[in-house]
Amino acid sequence: MSALSLAARDSSTMLRRNLLHARRYPSLTLNLLLTPVVMLLLFVYVFGDVMSAGMGGADRAAYIAYVVPGILMMTVGGTVVGTAVSVSNDMTEGIIARFRTMAIHRPSILVGHVVGSVLQCLMSVLLVGAVAVAIGFRSTDATALEWLAAFGLTALIALALTWIAVGMGLVSPNAEAASNNALPLVVLPLISSAFVPIDSMPGWFRPIAEYQPFTPAIETLRGLLLGTGIGHNGWLALAWCAGLTVLGYVWSKARFDRDPS
Fold first, then answer.
1. Given 15, 117, 140, 212, which is the most exposed site by the fewest CB atoms within 10 A?
2. Radius of gyration of the chain measured on its C-alpha atoms
3. Which residues of 79-114 are buried (b: 16+ CB within 10 A; e: fewer)?
4. What is the pTM of this model?
């Protein structure tokens, strides 16, 4: 077999391993998935009227359309926390030390985590999206091409954040530390344009919301799903995806290739 065939075979094996772990131990995934669903219901049914009134008098249906793209991005950020925990568990429980002694393609261990996490992110987004549709979200102005672009953007964001989460898991001494290190991936969507427009924020707070990866991703996804303008946010979102993916990959590979102490 060629080196490429061996790499593909080993990566496929590691992917199946991680998917089996997710199926056998679903509690972490369900807990992470529950958070965006609760946030969606909370901001629609508890704060919806107040929040929509502060956005130029929009009704609750308009606010649902506004808030759903942000919740979907929050779902991705929350799901990859489980990846950091899973990688940390592998590093501390000794299975990686055993893999290092086996004749396998070493990068396939990380590839299995990354591909498995991206698939879980997309499945989580679909489930949260189904809840959003059930409570009234509609995307009647988006074309089929825009739907495809929205799906592609979600996958790119998931890929970028997963590589960052893998790096966080590799540098964490235990699962608890990995969960804490990955907490910014959950917090950043909360201080973005997910729930209110940036223009309505205090002047000192706007740079925090504007100059971060989630805001351009949310604005791009919002424009694609609602059929509205995207402006420069599309290029910014793609640039963030590329930068975070490269950073996460280089960081994770360097850390993983380091000889264990």
1. 140
2. 19
3. bbbbbbbbbbbbbbeeebeeeeeeebbbbbbbbbbb
4. 0.89
